[in-house]
Write a sequence for this structure.
C-alpha cells in the first residue's frame, strides 16, 4: 500500500520499521528512523499501520489442542508365518526348487531321447541295451533253468558260469534287491547265443528320478500356493490399515 | 522433573517422559499448524505427525531449545501437508480456511458484541495469513502470534537472523496491505486508517 513511494531514505526507513516496532534496532538506526519519522508523515502512517497489524496479530486467540497428541509405541507384533519375513525365504525357495525340477526334467528328457535314438536303430539293439543295463548276477541268480543232460535245475548264472548255452527257463522269481533294478522275466531263449530278455513292469533305474521329479513338482505347487496365500494375507493387512 | 531430564529419559526410549513433553508443547504445535494450514483437521494430522517424527528423531536432538526443535519439525510437517495438497490438486487447504469453534468460545468477561468482533477479526487475520507466502507466514506466526524472539524463530525455521528480519518485515507489510484493501470489512474498532 505504501511501498514503492517516497525517497530512497523513506524506503530505507520503511525497511527498518518492522524491527523498530519490535524495539530491535541498534541505537544508530533507531535514531535515524526517529529523526525521519518526525519529518515524514507517510512513513509515520506506515509505522502506525504496521504497529496496528502487529497488535491485531497479538490478539489472535490461542486455541486449545482438540485432543491429546501423545505418542503410543505399538507392542512388537509376533511375525506371522506368512508375513513379509516369510516372503523373503518363500521366493528364493520356490525359485530354487523350480530350477532343480527343470534341470531334472531336462536331464530326464535328454536321457529318454538318447534311449529312443538307440531303440530306433533296431529291436535287437534295444534288447541288448536293456540287458546291458541290468546287472546280470541278481537276475540270473533268481532265474532257474533246466539244461538237457543235467539233472535238476540250476540258476541261469550258474549255467552261464559253467558255459551252458542250451538251456530252458523253468521259472524265475522277482528280483527284490536292489529295488531300483527292473524286474526281469525271461520268457524264453532264442538261438544259441543267449536269451531274449523282455523287461516287464518296474520303473527301471529312472524310478528314483521320477520320485524326485514328482516330489519337486509337488514342492513347487505347495510353495507357489504359500506365496499366493502370503500375498493375499499381506494385501488384507495393508487394506485394514 | 525438568525438561532436560524428560529429554534424557525420552532419548533412552521412555515414552511416558516423551509424552510429558508432548503435553507441554502440543498446544503451541497445534496452533502453529492451524495458522499455517488454516484447517483444523489438517492441523490435527500435522500435529500428530510432528510428535511421532519428534519421538523417532529424539536421539538426534543435540541440545539447545527443545521448543525451537519441535517447532521446526512442526513447520516441516506443515510444509509437507501443503506440498501434498498442491501436488495432488486436492482442494487447497487455504480455501478450507475455517475458524474452529474453540476460537470463538466467548470469554466469561466478554460481551456478545466483543465476542462477535473478535470472531470477525480472527477470520480476517486467518484469511490474511493464508495469503502470505509460506516462508513469510511461518515467521509472522512464530513471531507475532506465538511470541517467539527473533533468535527462536531463526532456530525454528533454520534461517539466519537477517532472513528472519527480512521475512518478518515483508510478511507484516503484505498482511497490512491485505487488511487495508479490505478495511471496510474490518470492524471499525480494528481499522488501520482511523
Amino acid at each position: 500500500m505504501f511501498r514503492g513511494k517516497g525517497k530512497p531514505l523513506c524506503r530505507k526507513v520503511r525497511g527498518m520499521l518492522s524491527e523498530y516496532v519490535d524495539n530491535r534496532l541498534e541505537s544508530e538506526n533507531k535514531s535515524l528512523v526517529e529523526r525521519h519519522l518526525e519529518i515524514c508523515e507517510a512513513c509515520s502512517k506506515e509505522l502506525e499501520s504496521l504497529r496496528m497489524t502487529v497488535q491485531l496479530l497479538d490478539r489472535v486467540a490461542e486455541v486449545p489442542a482438540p485432543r491429546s497428541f501423545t505418542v503410543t509405541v505399538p507392542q512388537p507384533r509376533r511375525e506371522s508365518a506368512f508375513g513379509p519375513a516369510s516372503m523373503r525365504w518363500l521366493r528364493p525357495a520356490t525359485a530354487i526348487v523350480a530350477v532343480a525340477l527343470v534341470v531334472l526334467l531336462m536331464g530326464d528328457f535328454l536321457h529318454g531321447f538318447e534311449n529312443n535314438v538307440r531303440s530306433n536303430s533296431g529291436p535287437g539293439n534295444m534288447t541288448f541295451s536293456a540287458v546291458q543295463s541290468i546287472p546280470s548276477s541278481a537276475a540270473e541268480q533268481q532265474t532257474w533253468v533246466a539244461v538237457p543232460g543235467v539233472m535238476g535245475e540250476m540258476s541261469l548264472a550258474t549255467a552261464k558260469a559253467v558255459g551252458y548255452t542250451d538251456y530252458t527257463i523253468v521259472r524265475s522269481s522277482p528280483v527284490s534287491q536292489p529295488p531300483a533294478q527292473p524286474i526281469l522275466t525271461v520268457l524264453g531263449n532264442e538261438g544259441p547265443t543267449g536269451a531274449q530278455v523282455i523287461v516287464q513292469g518296474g520303473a527301471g533305474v529312472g524310478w528314483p528320478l521320477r520320485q524326485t521329479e514328482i516330489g519337486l513338482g509337488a514342492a513347487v505347487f505347495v510353495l507357489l500356493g504359500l506365496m499366493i496365500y502370503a500375498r493375499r494375507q499381506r494385501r488384507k493387512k495393508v487394506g485394514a490399515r | 522433573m525438568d525438561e532436560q531430564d524428560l529429554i534424557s529419559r525420552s532419548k533412552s526410549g521412555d515414552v511416558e517422559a516423551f509424552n510429558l513433553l508432548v503435553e507441554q508443547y502440543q498446544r503451541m504445535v497445534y496452533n502453529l499448524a492451524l495458522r499455517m494450514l488454516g484447517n483444523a483437521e489438517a492441523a490435527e494430522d500435522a500435529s500428530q505427525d510432528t510428535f511421532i517424527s519428534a519421538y523417532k528423531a529424539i536421539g538426534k536432538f543435540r541440545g539447545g531449545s527443545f521448543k525451537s526443535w519441535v517447532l521446526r519439525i512442526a513447520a516441516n510437517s506443515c510444509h509437507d501437508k501443503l506440498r501434498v495438497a498442491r501436488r495432488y490438486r486436492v482442494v487447497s487447504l487455504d480455501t478450507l480456511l475455517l475458524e474452529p469453534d474453540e476460537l470463538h468460545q466467548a470469554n466469561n468477561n466478554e460481551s456478545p458484541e466483543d465476542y462477535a468482533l473478535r470472531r470477525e477479526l480472527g477470520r480476517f487475520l486467518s484469511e490474511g495469513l493464508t495469503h502470505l507466502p509460506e516462508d513469510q507466514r511461518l515467521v509472522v506466526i512464530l513471531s507475532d502470534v506465538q511470541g517467539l524472539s527473533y533468535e527462536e524463530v531463526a532456530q525454528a525455521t533454520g534461517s539466519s537472523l537477517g532472513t528472519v528480519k527480512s521475512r518478518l518485515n515483508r510478511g507484516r507489510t503484505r498482511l497490512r496491505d491485505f487488511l487495508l484493501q479490505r478495511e471496510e470489512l474490518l470492524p471499525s474498532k480494528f481499522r488501520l486508517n482511523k
In short: Residues 117-135, 180-204 of chain A have pLDDT under 50 and may be disordered. The first helix of chain A runs from residue 8 to 21. The helical segments of chain A are 8-21, 27-39, 41-58, 84-120, 123-132, 136-141, 156-162, 207-240. Chain A is about 60% helix and 10% strand.
